[in-house]
Write a structure and sequence with these properties.
The protein contains 3 helices and no strands. It has 74 residues and is mainly alpha-helical. It is elongated and about 70 Å long.
């Protein structure tokens, strides 16, 4: 165990062995971009497959919003 621990110590203490912040930032940005693309790709896919359903849902939301606005005004 001591040999493996001592083998790791120089890499930890060596500043050139550390991952630069810009590299990790770009990896995080890439992961976020991929997540957003997959999410919005899913939304677009649903919209393309079920346009009537999505339109009906949007109309229902609009009608309910109008109803709530009228109720609040009274």
């Amino acid at each position: 165990m001591e040999k493996s621990e001592s083998a790791l110590t120089p890499a930890i203490d060596n500043p050139s062995a550390k991952i630069p912040l810009s590299s990790t930032t770009s990896v995080v940005k890439r992961d976020i971009n991929q997540s957003l693309r997959s999410f919005f790709g899913w939304v677009v896919d649903v919209w393309i497959r079920f346009p009537d359903l999505i339109s009906q849902l949007l109309n229902d939301i609009e009608e309910r919003t109008k109803y709530l606005e009228e109720t609040v005004r009274k």
